[in-house]
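Notes from hallway chat w/ T.B., transcribed later so I don't forget. T.B. wanted the structure written out for a chain they're using in a teaching module, and asked if we could keep both sequence and structure tokens in one place. Agreed to drop them here.
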Amino acid sequence: MRIGALADKAGRTQRTLHFYEELGLLTPVGRTKGGFRLYDQDSLLRIHWISRLQDLGFSLPEIKVFLEELRSAQSAPEMMLSLQGFYAQKLEETRTQLLRLQALDVELNGALHYLAGCRTCAPATEKSACPTCEEGEHADSHAPPLVAAVHDAHPSPES
């Protein structure tokens, strides 16, 4: 297929695919008599692979280096072992990131729960009172860090 058809199937622009070629990430399988680049289904698989690596947080230059490392392997088992190590490392990083995101989820939910109780505060209440608020639902709780840190406990002299 020509580059336009490949771009449509891959959900990418022709310009993006040309850039992939410039980086050495994508190679046409041939050319038409008119000089147009031709691609096959493996090219589509390569584009999806690049996209997934980008989803994992890799830049195109990093993908280029990784692909060069894979190409330099002396045998298929060596290449697959390298790929396995690469994916295992990324899986570990992903799991660590998931744990951080789960902790952030808990922290955000706590802040939102606390903030839902702020509706009972008098409109004229000073901002500096917020971190130690004991009004309404806050009587037996402390402001979570995501809430307490935004209040001016020590207002600037200009206030």
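Follow-up for T.B.: The chain has a mean pLDDT of 88. Might be a good example for the class.
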